[in-house]
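From the methods appendix. Each design record in this collection lists the tokenized structure first, followed by the designed amino acid sequence. Records were kept in a plain field format so they could be parsed without special tools. The example shown here is representative of the layout used throughout.

RECORD:
FOLD TOKENS (270 positions):
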């Protein structure tokens, strides 16, 4: 599969669960702005057969290069940044939850999900836009996960799919910074994630980021009832040049820690 087809599949899966992204993109384009993707992010569980190392080959196959690791001790997450084959293509941020560090109760629930996944299925690139690969969890298990890890509860209901796309603010002509973008987005009626401040990072760390709060959709639970859960969000990032003159290529763990909270249940609800 070529990289264009790869991204077309990711985008159509993403907007199906995140209609705000299509609306925001269209509104920026209607103003004459050029919408280029800075990066795309995915979430998974550090369990066979879906751990980060099992998903990574699909990125390498379309030309990505591993750049650097990130650690989120409090959230029990590990992540890796990947550089694209061409400079104007999106970077990738791939993270996984260290399930072994969770309570026995949560770890047992998550192991029960991962073990339903066929290892052969993971070898197909479409795993990255597959969604939930296991039976719906019970409402009780969802609450157990939520109390310990918002990320765990999110993966249990949403599965493996692009968690967000990100507009590259550097390519915009009518929006000088992330705050200006957030104001336009709020003007369209969407809520902004203010965890850690509206704009995370600064020119000092060579990266500024902001995001919406995740959309919400009905998801099935084990009792056959559907309940509303957070889906995915849209991010906006501005990069500053490193001393060598290139735009900063990586991510910033302290900012990313707050961006993760764009899918928190108590926050989402645009
Ligand atoms: C990823 C959060 C981190 C960034 O750009 O720093 C991130 C997530 O919510 O899965 O996207
Ligand atoms: Ni991001």
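DESIGN:
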């Amino acid at each position: 599969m070529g990289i264009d087809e790869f991204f077309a599949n990711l985008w159509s899966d993403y907007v199906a669960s995140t209609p705000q992204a299509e609306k925001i993109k269209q509104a920026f384009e209607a103003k004459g702005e050029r919408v280029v993707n800075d990066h795309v992010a995915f979430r998974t569980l550090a369990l066979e057969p879906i751990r980060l190392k099992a998903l990574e080959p699909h990125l390498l196959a379309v030309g990505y290069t591993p750049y650097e690791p990130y650690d989120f001790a409090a959230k029990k997450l590990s992540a890796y940044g990947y550089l694209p084959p061409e400079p104007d293509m999106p970077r990738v941020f791939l993270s996984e939850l260290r399930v072994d560090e969770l309570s026995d109760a949560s770890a047992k629930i998550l192991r029960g999900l991962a073990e339903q996944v066929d290892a052969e299925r993971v070898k197909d690139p479409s795993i990255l836009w597959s969604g939930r690969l296991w039976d719906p969890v019970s409402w009780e298990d969802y609450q157990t996960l939520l109390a310990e890890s918002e990320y765990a509860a999110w993966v249990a209901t949403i599965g493996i799919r692009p968690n967000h796309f990100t507009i590259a603010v550097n390519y915009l002509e009518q929006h000088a910074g992330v705050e200006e973008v957030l104001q336009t987005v709020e003007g369209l009626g969407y809520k902004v994630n203010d965890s850690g401040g509206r704009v995370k990072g600064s020119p000092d760390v060579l990266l500024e980021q902001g995001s919406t709060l995740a959309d919400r959709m009905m998801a099935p639970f084990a009792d056959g009832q559907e309940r509303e859960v957070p889906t995915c969000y849209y991010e906006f990032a501005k990069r500053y040049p490193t001393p060598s003159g290139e735009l900063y290529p990586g991510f910033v763990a302290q900012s990313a820690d707050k961006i993760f909270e764009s899918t928190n249940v108590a926050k989402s609800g645009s």
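APPENDIX NOTE: The domain at 3-263 is CATH 3.10.180.50 (2,3-Dihydroxybiphenyl 1,2-Dioxygenase; domain 1).
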